Amino acid sequence: MRILSIASETHDSGIAIVENGKPVLVIEEERLCRIKHTQRFPEASLAAAIEGGWLQPGEIDAIVTPWNAAVLRKTFLKAILRNTPSSLNLLRPSANTAQRLSIVVLNQWLKYKLTRALGLQKLPPFYGVRHHHAHAAIFFVSPFEEANVLVMDGYGDDAATSTYVGRGSSLERIWQSDVFNSLGMIYTFVTGHLGFRDFEEGTVMALAAHGDDRYLDRFRDTIRLVDDGRYDVDMSYFKFDRYAFLKPFSEKFFTTFGPARHHDEPVTDHHKALARALQVRIEEVVVHVARGLHARNRSRHLVVSGGVALNCVANARILAETDYEHVWVPPCASDTGAPLGAALWLHHQRNEQPRDFTLTHPFYGLEESEEAIRAALDAAGLAAERLDDATLFARVARDLAEGRIVGWFQGRFEMGPRALGNRSILADPRRLATKDRINARIKYRESFRPFAPAVLVEHAQEYFEIAQDDPFMTFAPRVRADKLDVIPAAVHIDGTARLQTVDRRANPRYYAVIEAFGRETGVPVLINTSFNRQEPIVSTAREAVSCYLRTEMDVLVLGNFYTQSRNAESQARARTAFAVREENLVGGE
């Protein structure tokens, strides 16, 4: 069975194609339209899938979306009736687009756009999967035959937190919170209160490590722990149940935690302390919920999904402080993975098909041909050598050991919000100055933002306090005391690091370059950050060349092509082209 899954008119729109329970292609629309977290109908993704031969419209057996419009409409109509007239703000243009469209027109608009994009007069059977069911269904490609499943995000169509038990090809939801009883929404709103833009929660997570505990006890009052692994948001601090995104805080919040920071104002100790209070309380609640689920069903395994699952510090605390032996978080835990999950739910849960696939790598995006790479280099006037694998890996390892920063572009791009070895910027973790240089001269972001270490899986426990693999960069354990001075550029101020374990079978080329660096230096670890500059992660060779020319990267590797070439004319063109798009770009890894 061939399923097309599509997310549209909600952030992180995109598509997934799944055949008999196995992902064939997963694309976030932002990678192609170059607008971070776009809500656009994924027209470019569909066109690329058809042009690349991944999708034949006449061979689609079913179409699915990771939202159930009827359920979402019922949820928000109930909220409107409960809070009329103030909650009519939900229908204003500045309210969330997906909510308005679901309330007013259900899926008719989406079906119309799909009919045109696919060139079909009649669509195949069309299904809407509840949003949290789509997140939970990532269990079906986890390494576990049975597991507890925890889904936490801003909100779905009927919940903000859901717990499940997964066995074989079925999932059973155990309990769910009210849609406004939401950890994700609180994190988002406090991120805005602290002066950061939409989708910059990761910045606040990094800032939290710099704060003190002055607000921690008071912030604990905003989210109370309840027996049985549940929690309650104290809505006396908030108003988002009545005013949605328009007016999220009550006067009590401002009196307790101070006025909002404007984006251009300096970050003070007050802001750092509030970030810490937010982060620590979220961690405590997540651990509490995970323990409560374990008390109900004593599985050794836990799958965590939803936007809150991107909180790698909280994930590390689950692993360290609960009775779960293994915790698995997919690379696409956020809404970037919702289309894939919706297709998996349809195939396994609804159609009761058996499982025979485990997700071991994230590389289900598009790939550039060697001809396209050559054309991109030639168009920019960059001289490049084509090297054999052994020579390439050895040369890049030597460059990195000598302090050069390398743009690394290989194969199919990753799904999910993080670069995991095919669209990465690589650097030497032994040099503390590396962190400041990348932040200031390449990423153009705050100096307190940390960088992730990629380590050969065989050496992970030598460097980090973690007892399992982490191939998708979803945990931030502590760095071992004797390694703090060995990889200082990879260590956050609190002694943690958001690591990625690299297995040769999952990505042989990425493994090989880290292995070569290990032979060169004795340290089988590299800094890995997303190949971008305040924009979506690059997807094409032309975008990689542009990013290289607009930053101070020293080396660019595209497949087997190696260059350190630059020229003033190409750099000027790249900067001009980027400047005209910059107003559309939001945040970034």
Description of the molecule:
The protein has 589 residues and is α/β, with parallel strands linked by helices. It folds into three domains: 2-136 and 335-350, Nucleotidyltransferase, domain 5 (2-Layer Sandwich); 183-328, Nucleotidyltransferase, domain 5 (2-Layer Sandwich), CATH 3.30.420; 370-584, Alpha-Beta Complex (DHBP synthase), CATH 3.90.870.20. It is 37% helix and 16% strand. It contains 21 helices and 20 strands. It has an eight-stranded mixed sheet, sandwiched between helices. The chain has a five-stranded mixed sheet with strand order 3-2-1-4-5, sandwiched between helices. A five-stranded mixed sheet has the order 8-7-6-11-12. A hairpin with a 2-residue loop joins strand 19 and strand 20 (561-563). The two termini are 36 Å apart. The relative contact order is 0.12.
- Largest sheet: number of strands, sense, barrel closure: 8 strands, mixed
The proportion of residues in beta strands is 15-25%
| Oligomeric composition of the shown chains | single chain
CATH H-level homologous superfamily name of the largest domain: Carbamoyltransferase, C-terminal domain
Q: How would you write the strand order of the largest sheet? A: 13-20-19-14-15-18-16-17
